[in-house]
Protein 1
Amino acid sequence: MQKVLHINADKCTGCLQCEMACSFENYGTFATAKSRIKVFDFHHTGKKVPYTCTQCDEAWCLHACPVEAITVDKATGAKVVNEATCVGCKVCTIACPFGTINYVEATGKVQKCDLCGGEPACADACPTGAITFIDANWTGLGKMAQWADKLGNQPSAV
Amino acid sequence: MAWAGKILRVDLTTGTVKSEPLNMDWARAYLGSRGLGSKYLVEEVDAKTDPLAAANKIIWATGPLTGTMASTGGRYTVITKSPLTGTIACSNSGGYWGAEFKMAGWDMVIFEGKSAKPVYLYVNDDVAELRDASHLWGKSVWETEEMLKKSLQDPLTRVSSIGKAGENGVLYASVVNDLHRAAGRSGVGTVMGSKNLKAIAVRGTKGVGNIRDPKAFMAAVKAGKKVLAENGVTGTGLPAMGTQVLMSVINEVGALPTRNHRDNQFEGAKDIGAEAMAAPRKSDGKKHLVTNQACFGCTIACGRISKMDENHFTIVNKPQYRGANGGLEYEAAWALGAANGVNDLEALQYANMLCNEEGIDPISFGTTIGAVMELYDMGVLTKEQIGIEAPFGSAQALAFLTEETIYGRGFGKEIGQGSKRLTAKYGHPDLSMSSKGQEFPAYDGRAIQGIGLAYATSNRGGCHLRGYTIASEVLGIPVKTDPLEHEGKPDLVKAFQDATAAFDSSGLCIFTTFAWGLQDLAPQMQGACGEQFTIEELALIGERIWNMEREFNNRAGFTAKDDSLPKRLLTEACKTGPAKGKVNMLAEMMPKYYAARGWDAEGRPTAETRKRLSL
């Protein structure tokens, strides 16, 4: 079973635990500036939205890479950057429609979410369930259950 | 460890910015944030210094756990000598600024002297420089943040700044970051303004590393988060209802100061608390409350984001206030509402937004309005003097006087001096509901005995956050004590004051202590900083910090007689509710408090106490 990061923005409080967990996992420091998942705070509505790579099946970053530095992790389905191969040309950052692969000045390479090898630290750190790591085929299951509950528990059905 | 190990020193007079190593001996003895910043202040500033003179200094300090994954680890403290009280001032704020500053690689920044023209400090990792702020002077906090982010071409820049109130000398001006998080109390923003310092804009990309034992730290962090999540207050009550959950609770125990403490229960409490915020409005059918919001790293998320009724009289012609905005929190809702008898939730949110927009403390401001309304009621102040009819309960007067105060107009200039100076000027100093010149927050010291003692002995004047005995006396945390009973409260107050000083100085939020004790803080401090930070050591550090602050105040000229409450709390009994007939028993409690502290009859730490605390 393949699993994916699933985001429910309604539950996000903007605490940035995910960003810290990401940077700590990958760099050993708490640095939101280095995180591969970002939380966007829209002040005029009060909405907070975490955003990161969705691991496209047809990954444009992977196809665009001229040196084949981006490969598929067969176990997790993650598109993973091989730093030793990456030449920092940034073509992938242009190819990605969502902006979730980015250049890192300090290393001269690009970085993106690699699902932490199958145990994403962001999902583990999220205190509200806004970020979960769930069955890729059933990301809608939670919503279905909610609506089913509404339907099944009408006063007339009791 | 977990400290960045270096600090910035900015001489505003000469315009120089220097880096210097953090004094690690002091860091181990005073942790960080409140404690460590205060240590630098008391070592470097003469206690008798005029707070608004160039000789005063002002410090932004983070703690060792600021910027880490420890829950609520985003706090910073602004430390200076207060122009409102003349005592040491340390005001704590959340949001994201503190963590950003720490991630830039600094533990604190000390400002000394006074700039000849408006400046702001720009910090981008190792780069730190003073820049011209002429174009920002006269702008609000919100405009300043927006203009800086635009001109720096970096929307991720975090800004800590003052609005017009801090520039205009309102004595309780606050320092505001991230639009609506504030180092609110004691006029730290006034000192910032007196130095022509408008803002600190920070971008930190280095991060916080240097964790002593990362594995142990992360395990302790995870355990701490679990305790918060499973606790009724931090896991359920605060995220859902916010601090406003307290409005009905405190009113029921008869401890909601109303109409300048004339009454102790407010008939309009139900209109201005958490339940009212969550219910559809009569006027437009929409809810006031939009969502909750966390500060950096916080897994509680008590913050409130609300939207006002667009047709409310306060904003009907002001579209800029129609979006989602910060508030209401309990203290502001009480001070702007119950303290003045105003039960118009929308008017309170309007006043609260202006407090954030131009940077003033809603507690001191609201309490001062309460005194103005009482003087109006007595006929001492007239409509002509105030500029509007100002009876208790008038939302129009509240809105008008908020504008007058933040813009420094008319009678607002006098309100900006705080209730102590204002009531003294008009011949009724007893009507200032304050200790050491700082106005009381939202708990009646007659109906809750311990908090009265905490107000009288707080090192920054009237304040609930220096020893929140409400936790024990009302909520039963960690053990329930009787709010009407004064016996045993001196020890309780001391214990809360000392533990709070340790939490404040670690870089975490005091709200964690609804669920955590020092036994939860210690493993996180040990994992991050060093094995010596046991429960006992943290308690000792907290007590050391308390006594250090006290000795600064003593040197500033404060004596035992300043550990007092207004006559009203000592002689005019509560009129209704469970506390009917009660006054605060301060005279009974004070000698026992001094004894518990190891102080002499004048409130000075004895030689033995100083030795025990390594002062």
Note: Residues 141-152 of chain A form the longest helix (12 residues).
Protein 2
Amino acid sequence: MIWLSVLLVFGTLAWIGVNLGAESPELRLGAGQIIRGRIPWLILGALWGGVALGVASLLRGRRLPKLAVLLLEIPLVALVTWYVLVQSVLPAHTLAVDVGDPFPGYALVDQDGALHEVASLEKRAPALYIFYRGHW
Amino acid sequence: MSVDRPEASRRLKERLKSRFTFLADPDGVLLDGVGIRHRGGRNDGADIAYPTAVLVDAGGVVRWIFRSDTYRERARADEIFAAIAALPEPG
């Protein structure tokens, strides 16, 4: 049972890491939950399920090695849980535009230094503006 | 769109082999226009954007907005395509 615990906890963490590191547009087999939805139930369920299995295994004997495994697992799982439930939560904020409002005009340069200047309500090709946090 | 400077955006565009335009708003002028300046949101205390996506039609009117309560979440591709499909015909 302790090996199943190890597989669930470290397998889930590795799966998330591999998928995020791949910079793929879509994350596979549940890893996408990390960027989908307020609470990634599947990921948290796998991690805490793994910890629960470890605790159950600990209660059945051979306690020292199993305790060592749990002492590795629990801080990692707690850290991921804190990240998704607390650290990644943004302060409340109110947008200055809503559906049906004019999009603000702007004059900004692109990655090559070319100026893109559009006045509010000026005719243009439809456009999707995705605001990233940047700092890559 | 981000507060990154054009050189950083160019490196990222090349790394991702992206065909999108990367607009640079280092002073956050458009962030203020949309109301998505996250003051002190970067690790070094600088301002950055709240993750947001805005679809604008040919007349410059906002037709769809994605926003999130966490910085982990992003708009899904199917949500974006559905919003684009629902855009009014230009005319």
Note: The CA atoms of residues 40 and 46 of chain B lie 5 Å apart.
Protein 3
Amino acid sequence: MRTQGHIVGRKKVLRWVVWAIGLVLVIGPASLQAQQGFPSKPVQIIVPYGPGGSIDVATRIFAEPLSRELKVPVVIDNKTGGTGLIGASAFLNTNPDGYTLLAVAGSTMVSAVQLSKSPAFDPRKDFLPVGYIADSPCAVSVAKNAPFKTIEEFLKYARSNPGKLRGGVSSLGGESHITFELFRKEGKFETKMVPYTATGGLVTAIMGGHLDWMCLMFPATMPYHRSGDVKIVLLTRRSAELPGVPSGPDVGMPGVSINQWTALLALPKTPKPVYDRLVAAVAATAKDPEVAKKLASAGFTLDYKPPHEVSKLINDQWDIYGQVIKEANIKTE
Amino acid sequence: MENILNGFTIALQPINLFYCFIGCLAGTLVGVLPGIGPTGAVALLLPATYRFNPISALIMMCGIAYGAAYGGSTTSILVNVPGEASSVVTCLDGYQMAKKGRAGPALGISALGSFIAGTVGVIGLMFLAPTLSRAALAFDSPDYFALMMMSLMFVTYLVRGSMIKALIMVGLGLVLGMVGMDALSGRERFTYGAVTLRDGIGIIPVVVGLFGVNEVLETLSSQVKTDILKIKIKGYLPTLQDWKDSGRPIVRGTFLGFIMGIFPGISPMIPTFLDYGIEKRLSKHPEKFGTGVIEAVAGPESCNNAAAVGSFVPLLSLGIPSNAFNAVLLGALMIYGLQPGPLLIKNHPDLFWGVVASMYIGNAMLVVFNLPMIPLWVKVLQIPANLLAILILIFCFLGSYSINNSIFDAVITFVFGVFGFVLKRYRFETPPLVLALVLGPLIEVAFRQTMIVSGGSFLVFIQRPICAFLMVVSLGIVITAFVKKRRFTESIGREE
């Protein structure tokens, strides 16, 4: 047993080290320290997307209490590019010592790999899940002046006016795009699909009346639903904030149930004691009601899942995405 | 009015003044350093702000944004390395001014023009934010397409030499802009299987290479090694004549920048190019543009500051980020538990008015600590040429590497440095390439979105009033440009 004073003293030293994190992570003699008791230096989480995005926000919210749990700083490193593939590949080249973790939007990662001509890794085999943190549903919303206000009215209108509706999605291959494809397939209607390159452009277009409906993540849609600029008619999972809005399975569309989720991953060769410590720390952090509150205000639902469930989810979604991508004829050649 | 006063009470609290100062200082720093932009700086600082009051944190982050717009011009003028993408145009005449010993006035007019533009922009933000952002929503993809096409037409005003060579550069820029994963279909284009190329070719690495590295190669290859030492410094502040020349450009730059800043997705770089074109078109001596005229520095520099403020309009009033930096701010607001969106101003008036008031103060602070810095900056020019060349190279590569911590970006910078050197030898001008590289992807996406909605009909472009108007303007630019171009080339010929 260490004394409390010993740990506090160490913490002080480490606080200095934070400022030289980059250096420490490169030259730190990791294997030795790992045996001495994990963790003894800052833990880095690679976020393979740009700062400010939904996965980044969720991970940053989670990192703060996680650092209290692990008693070392937890640092976020945004390694942007290649729809998440660059950060993930960089992660695969790090030391499997548990000091570097990867945060992923599970399904984006799955689709990014499937959309890649020569994938550098297989998300089903090359990672070791540490835990599932949170998720948020996708929302189908309609423009303010649209002649339909509910999912039934929407479907009726869409089916009697095939190909007339202008629907929008924010980024190709993401959860909202997959939901778009599954929704139009299971809802049995035809629509135009206008892809946008960023959420901003999509939201601007629907607010300006240039689109009739869109698929976008729930947290990003919610402010415009509250202000009355759009109306959410369907979610991929029911939300306590909008009790009146049905989910896909509620209206007979079982496929319209894909949520954007965030999980932390480690490398398969991570030493067992280190891995167990990480899994326990993530599980403990997820029990903190403060974390749930903070995530909820950013639109996420804290929903901890242990590693084996994450693996199962990745496998399931691999198959669903593969089929949707094939049917929607999205190619990378 | 009550709101504004309330905002100032918040912004003038010592703690908020302090964070405003820190933000401006950090912003100036990242602005001066090429590559490292406000986006990276804020992402790094974000964890440190969790314990702040959200208003203080936002005040600091906004300070970084407009501080960077101030600092970006410094290296453009002194060493021909744009500190930010929005300061590329400043290189054209700013650096020429420095070569003539007028770096001081160039820096001075940038700082003061930025101050004026920033302040006017903040007033616009304060009174017009909700109205303007709703008005900008009327723009649909065909209108964006027309707006971008019009911007591209301004290429005719960016060149001094051969128009054919300029068009070749435009073509090349458009092709380079296509590299990467097509945002609308997911297909990879010109990537040859390389993951790093999926995101396309970054603008900053290209620009730093074309301007900075190229300039170093130029210096090292020229016989006159003491070139820079010979510069005689003529004054540190703009003269009365300079003010007379710059007054109107500052006003025009401010309005153009602010208005274009409001549209989501338009990088602040585009209005600066437009502004340069407009100034050249209106100038009585367009043949002197590119040789170091002060109005060509004053206009674009005011423009980029106004655009930086303008981009806060959709962010704060609608929750729509118009660039990468604003996306980070949006994320920060979410982490603080505030919900950005159309209701932000209504639900958190203290935040909106406090931040806006801090922008007035921040702009004043920036002028106060930028003006005394000018003599210091000008001294940079007295560093021996060889040493300076090495320093510039280090900053160029460090800068482009630091954007994504990617070696590949540094390689791009090197390749474009050498390429720019070759181009210059054969009298190709690079600004058209940069403009086309920025506009190409935007034009393409807007065009294809238009086609998806219209079902392939081109009629939409003349059916929509905004779009038709912009199309007519573009056509006008092309026609008058060719008429004027002849006279213009003649006058350049006479001068030489």
Note: Chain B touches chain A through 55 residues (CB under 8 Å).
